[in-house]
Specification:
Elements lengths: L1 H8 L10 H13 L4 H14 L2 H10 L5 H13 L6 H6 L6 H13 L4 H11 L10 H7 L2 H10 L12 H5 L7 H10 L6 H9 L6 H14 L5 H5 L7 H26 L6
Protein backbone atom coordinates (compact mmCIF):
# COMPACT_ATOMS: atom_id res chain seq x y z
CA UNK A 1 0.00 0.00 0.00
CA UNK A 2 2.80 2.37 0.93
CA UNK A 3 4.63 1.69 -2.31
CA UNK A 4 1.44 2.41 -4.30
CA UNK A 5 1.00 5.76 -2.53
CA UNK A 6 4.62 6.64 -3.25
CA UNK A 7 4.03 5.85 -6.92
CA UNK A 8 1.01 8.16 -7.08
CA UNK A 9 2.82 11.05 -5.36
CA UNK A 10 6.09 10.67 -7.34
CA UNK A 11 6.86 13.61 -9.68
CA UNK A 12 6.06 12.97 -13.33
CA UNK A 13 8.80 13.84 -15.87
CA UNK A 14 7.08 15.15 -19.00
CA UNK A 15 10.25 14.62 -21.08
CA UNK A 16 10.68 11.08 -22.38
CA UNK A 17 14.32 10.31 -23.11
CA UNK A 18 14.58 8.83 -26.64
CA UNK A 19 16.34 5.54 -27.17
CA UNK A 20 19.58 5.52 -29.20
CA UNK A 21 17.58 3.99 -32.06
CA UNK A 22 15.06 6.85 -32.00
CA UNK A 23 17.84 9.40 -31.67
CA UNK A 24 19.62 7.93 -34.71
CA UNK A 25 16.50 8.14 -36.85
CA UNK A 26 15.90 11.72 -35.73
CA UNK A 27 19.43 12.67 -36.80
CA UNK A 28 19.09 11.11 -40.24
CA UNK A 29 15.57 12.39 -40.95
CA UNK A 30 16.44 15.92 -39.91
CA UNK A 31 19.67 15.83 -41.90
CA UNK A 32 17.86 14.64 -45.01
CA UNK A 33 15.68 17.78 -45.05
CA UNK A 34 18.33 20.27 -43.93
CA UNK A 35 18.67 23.51 -45.89
CA UNK A 36 22.35 22.81 -46.55
CA UNK A 37 22.88 20.46 -49.51
CA UNK A 38 26.14 19.17 -48.05
CA UNK A 39 24.35 18.06 -44.88
CA UNK A 40 21.55 16.41 -46.87
CA UNK A 41 24.14 14.47 -48.86
CA UNK A 42 25.84 13.26 -45.68
CA UNK A 43 22.53 12.19 -44.15
CA UNK A 44 21.52 10.28 -47.28
CA UNK A 45 24.93 8.60 -47.26
CA UNK A 46 24.25 7.47 -43.68
CA UNK A 47 20.87 6.09 -44.68
CA UNK A 48 22.69 3.69 -47.01
CA UNK A 49 24.09 2.01 -43.90
CA UNK A 50 20.72 1.93 -42.15
CA UNK A 51 18.78 0.14 -44.92
CA UNK A 52 15.14 -0.91 -44.51
CA UNK A 53 11.92 0.42 -46.04
CA UNK A 54 11.98 3.78 -44.27
CA UNK A 55 15.57 4.46 -45.28
CA UNK A 56 14.82 3.40 -48.86
CA UNK A 57 11.80 5.71 -49.05
CA UNK A 58 13.87 8.73 -47.97
CA UNK A 59 16.63 7.89 -50.47
CA UNK A 60 14.13 7.46 -53.29
CA UNK A 61 12.71 10.88 -52.50
CA UNK A 62 16.25 12.32 -52.46
CA UNK A 63 16.70 11.17 -56.07
CA UNK A 64 14.74 14.30 -56.95
CA UNK A 65 16.83 16.66 -54.81
CA UNK A 66 17.92 19.89 -56.58
CA UNK A 67 21.57 19.22 -55.67
CA UNK A 68 23.47 16.75 -57.85
CA UNK A 69 25.60 15.44 -54.98
CA UNK A 70 22.53 14.61 -52.91
CA UNK A 71 21.00 12.78 -55.88
CA UNK A 72 24.24 10.88 -56.42
CA UNK A 73 24.46 9.88 -52.76
CA UNK A 74 20.81 8.78 -52.81
CA UNK A 75 21.43 6.56 -55.82
CA UNK A 76 24.57 5.14 -54.23
CA UNK A 77 22.79 4.37 -50.96
CA UNK A 78 19.99 2.51 -52.75
CA UNK A 79 22.59 0.20 -54.23
CA UNK A 80 24.35 -0.32 -50.91
CA UNK A 81 21.12 -1.29 -49.17
CA UNK A 82 20.27 -3.75 -51.98
CA UNK A 83 16.99 -2.00 -52.73
CA UNK A 84 15.81 -4.24 -55.56
CA UNK A 85 12.42 -2.54 -55.75
CA UNK A 86 14.14 0.81 -56.41
CA UNK A 87 15.47 -0.30 -59.80
CA UNK A 88 12.72 1.42 -61.86
CA UNK A 89 13.43 4.76 -60.14
CA UNK A 90 17.17 4.33 -60.64
CA UNK A 91 16.61 3.59 -64.33
CA UNK A 92 14.53 6.76 -64.63
CA UNK A 93 17.42 8.74 -63.13
CA UNK A 94 19.70 7.64 -65.97
CA UNK A 95 18.18 10.60 -67.84
CA UNK A 96 19.60 13.00 -65.24
CA UNK A 97 21.42 15.92 -66.87
CA UNK A 98 24.40 15.38 -64.55
CA UNK A 99 26.69 12.52 -65.58
CA UNK A 100 27.81 12.33 -61.95
CA UNK A 101 24.32 11.21 -60.98
CA UNK A 102 24.09 8.87 -63.95
CA UNK A 103 27.27 7.11 -62.82
CA UNK A 104 25.90 6.67 -59.30
CA UNK A 105 22.64 5.23 -60.64
CA UNK A 106 24.52 2.96 -63.02
CA UNK A 107 26.72 1.61 -60.28
CA UNK A 108 23.71 0.81 -58.11
CA UNK A 109 21.90 -0.83 -61.02
CA UNK A 110 25.02 -2.92 -61.56
CA UNK A 111 25.02 -3.97 -57.89
CA UNK A 112 21.30 -4.76 -58.19
CA UNK A 113 22.03 -6.93 -61.26
CA UNK A 114 20.06 -4.77 -63.67
CA UNK A 115 21.35 -5.23 -67.26
CA UNK A 116 20.62 -1.57 -68.03
CA UNK A 117 23.92 -0.75 -66.31
CA UNK A 118 25.86 -2.34 -69.17
CA UNK A 119 24.27 0.06 -71.65
CA UNK A 120 25.86 2.97 -69.79
CA UNK A 121 29.23 1.30 -69.25
CA UNK A 122 29.44 0.51 -72.95
CA UNK A 123 28.80 4.17 -73.75
CA UNK A 124 31.36 5.32 -71.17
CA UNK A 125 34.05 3.19 -72.77
CA UNK A 126 33.22 3.76 -76.43
CA UNK A 127 31.34 7.11 -76.39
CA UNK A 128 28.71 5.37 -78.51
CA UNK A 129 25.33 3.76 -77.79
CA UNK A 130 25.12 -0.01 -77.84
CA UNK A 131 21.38 0.12 -78.53
CA UNK A 132 18.47 2.53 -78.40
CA UNK A 133 18.56 2.29 -74.61
CA UNK A 134 21.00 3.90 -72.22
CA UNK A 135 22.28 7.45 -72.42
CA UNK A 136 20.47 10.30 -74.09
CA UNK A 137 22.16 12.44 -76.77
CA UNK A 138 23.19 15.28 -74.44
CA UNK A 139 24.92 12.76 -72.17
CA UNK A 140 26.76 11.24 -75.12
CA UNK A 141 27.89 14.73 -76.07
CA UNK A 142 29.30 15.12 -72.57
CA UNK A 143 31.25 11.88 -72.93
CA UNK A 144 32.78 13.19 -76.14
CA UNK A 145 33.73 16.48 -74.51
CA UNK A 146 37.27 16.04 -73.24
CA UNK A 147 37.12 18.84 -70.67
CA UNK A 148 33.87 17.63 -69.16
CA UNK A 149 35.18 14.08 -68.96
CA UNK A 150 38.36 15.28 -67.27
CA UNK A 151 36.28 17.09 -64.67
CA UNK A 152 34.07 14.02 -64.25
CA UNK A 153 37.06 11.76 -63.68
CA UNK A 154 38.33 14.10 -61.01
CA UNK A 155 34.99 14.42 -59.23
CA UNK A 156 33.81 10.82 -59.14
CA UNK A 157 35.37 9.73 -55.87
CA UNK A 158 32.21 9.64 -53.79
CA UNK A 159 32.18 5.87 -53.87
CA UNK A 160 30.55 4.75 -57.09
CA UNK A 161 33.66 4.49 -59.25
CA UNK A 162 35.50 1.65 -57.51
CA UNK A 163 38.05 1.10 -60.29
CA UNK A 164 40.52 -1.54 -59.23
CA UNK A 165 39.68 -0.98 -55.58
CA UNK A 166 41.27 2.48 -55.76
CA UNK A 167 40.41 4.75 -52.86
CA UNK A 168 39.27 8.30 -53.54
CA UNK A 169 42.59 9.77 -52.42
CA UNK A 170 44.36 7.53 -54.91
CA UNK A 171 42.08 8.70 -57.70
CA UNK A 172 42.69 12.31 -56.70
CA UNK A 173 46.41 11.87 -57.39
CA UNK A 174 45.67 11.26 -61.06
CA UNK A 175 46.32 14.27 -63.26
CA UNK A 176 43.41 16.62 -63.84
CA UNK A 177 43.66 16.00 -67.56
CA UNK A 178 43.11 12.26 -67.27
CA UNK A 179 39.63 10.76 -67.75
CA UNK A 180 40.97 7.21 -67.76
CA UNK A 181 39.60 6.13 -64.32
CA UNK A 182 36.01 6.49 -65.54
CA UNK A 183 36.62 4.63 -68.77
CA UNK A 184 38.69 1.97 -67.00
CA UNK A 185 35.88 1.41 -64.53
CA UNK A 186 33.46 0.99 -67.43
CA UNK A 187 35.72 -1.61 -69.04
CA UNK A 188 36.01 -3.49 -65.77
CA UNK A 189 32.24 -3.66 -65.38
CA UNK A 190 31.68 -4.91 -68.95
CA UNK A 191 33.43 -8.14 -67.94
CA UNK A 192 30.07 -9.44 -66.76
CA UNK A 193 27.99 -8.30 -69.75
CA UNK A 194 27.08 -11.35 -71.90
CA UNK A 195 26.40 -9.18 -74.95
CA UNK A 196 28.89 -9.94 -77.79
CA UNK A 197 29.01 -6.20 -78.55
CA UNK A 198 30.67 -5.59 -75.20
CA UNK A 199 33.19 -8.33 -75.87
CA UNK A 200 34.06 -6.73 -79.20
CA UNK A 201 34.40 -3.34 -77.53
CA UNK A 202 36.86 -4.77 -75.03
CA UNK A 203 38.89 -6.29 -77.85
CA UNK A 204 38.91 -2.95 -79.67
CA UNK A 205 40.06 -1.00 -76.62
CA UNK A 206 43.02 -3.22 -75.84
CA UNK A 207 44.89 -0.70 -77.98
CA UNK A 208 43.65 2.33 -76.03
CA UNK A 209 46.29 5.01 -75.54
CA UNK A 210 45.64 5.17 -71.78
CA UNK A 211 47.54 2.60 -69.70
CA UNK A 212 44.81 2.31 -67.05
CA UNK A 213 42.23 1.53 -69.70
CA UNK A 214 44.42 -1.16 -71.29
CA UNK A 215 45.01 -2.74 -67.89
CA UNK A 216 41.30 -2.71 -67.05
CA UNK A 217 40.39 -4.20 -70.43
CA UNK A 218 42.89 -7.04 -69.94
CA UNK A 219 41.37 -7.89 -66.55
CA UNK A 220 37.85 -7.74 -67.98
CA UNK A 221 38.80 -10.11 -70.79
CA UNK A 222 40.27 -12.60 -68.31
CA UNK A 223 37.08 -12.47 -66.27
CA UNK A 224 35.02 -13.17 -69.38
CA UNK A 225 37.29 -16.15 -70.02
CA UNK A 226 36.73 -16.35 -73.79
CA UNK A 227 39.79 -17.90 -75.49
CA UNK A 228 38.68 -16.26 -78.76
CA UNK A 229 40.25 -13.04 -77.46
CA UNK A 230 43.63 -14.68 -76.86
CA UNK A 231 45.12 -13.54 -80.18
CA UNK A 232 44.32 -9.91 -79.41
CA UNK A 233 45.83 -10.07 -75.93
CA UNK A 234 49.03 -11.66 -77.25
CA UNK A 235 49.75 -8.43 -79.12
CA UNK A 236 50.16 -6.65 -75.78
CA UNK A 237 53.13 -8.81 -74.81
CA UNK A 238 55.14 -6.16 -76.69
CA UNK A 239 53.38 -3.19 -75.10
CA UNK A 240 55.51 -0.16 -74.25
CA UNK A 241 54.32 -0.21 -70.64
CA UNK A 242 55.75 -2.81 -68.27
CA UNK A 243 52.57 -3.15 -66.19
CA UNK A 244 50.53 -3.84 -69.31
CA UNK A 245 53.07 -6.42 -70.50
CA UNK A 246 52.95 -8.28 -67.19
CA UNK A 247 49.14 -8.21 -67.11
CA UNK A 248 49.00 -9.36 -70.72
CA UNK A 249 51.34 -12.24 -69.91
CA UNK A 250 49.07 -13.37 -67.09
CA UNK A 251 46.04 -13.07 -69.34
CA UNK A 252 47.68 -15.11 -72.11
CA UNK A 253 48.38 -17.92 -69.65
CA UNK A 254 44.84 -17.83 -68.23
CA UNK A 255 43.14 -17.81 -71.65
CA UNK A 256 45.49 -20.49 -73.00
CA UNK A 257 44.61 -22.74 -70.07
CA UNK A 258 40.94 -22.07 -70.66
CA UNK A 259 41.30 -22.98 -74.35
CA UNK A 260 43.14 -26.19 -73.50
CA UNK A 261 40.49 -27.10 -70.94
CA UNK A 262 37.74 -26.62 -73.52
CA UNK A 263 39.54 -28.79 -76.06
CA UNK A 264 39.98 -31.57 -73.53
CA UNK A 265 36.29 -31.46 -72.65
CA UNK A 266 35.16 -31.42 -76.26
CA UNK A 267 37.39 -34.38 -77.17
CA UNK A 268 36.41 -36.49 -74.17
CA UNK A 269 34.24 -39.55 -75.04
CA UNK A 270 30.58 -39.27 -74.01
CA UNK A 271 29.75 -40.66 -70.61
CA UNK A 272 27.95 -43.99 -70.72
CA UNK A 273 24.66 -44.19 -68.90
Amino acid sequence: MLSFLLFLTAPINPQVIPTPYQQAWAILKQGAIDNAAAKRAKAVHGLGLASGRSAQAICEQALGDPDKNVRAEAATSLGKMNAISARPKLRACLDDKEILVVLACTNSLYLLKDPMAYEVYYALLTQERKSSKGLIQSQLDTLRDRKQMETLAFETGIGFVPYGGMAWQAIKTINHDDASPVRAMAAERLANDPDPKSEQALADYLADKKIKVREAVIEAIVKRGDPALLKTVIELLDDDNENVRFDAAGAVIALSQRRTSRRVKSSAPPTKR
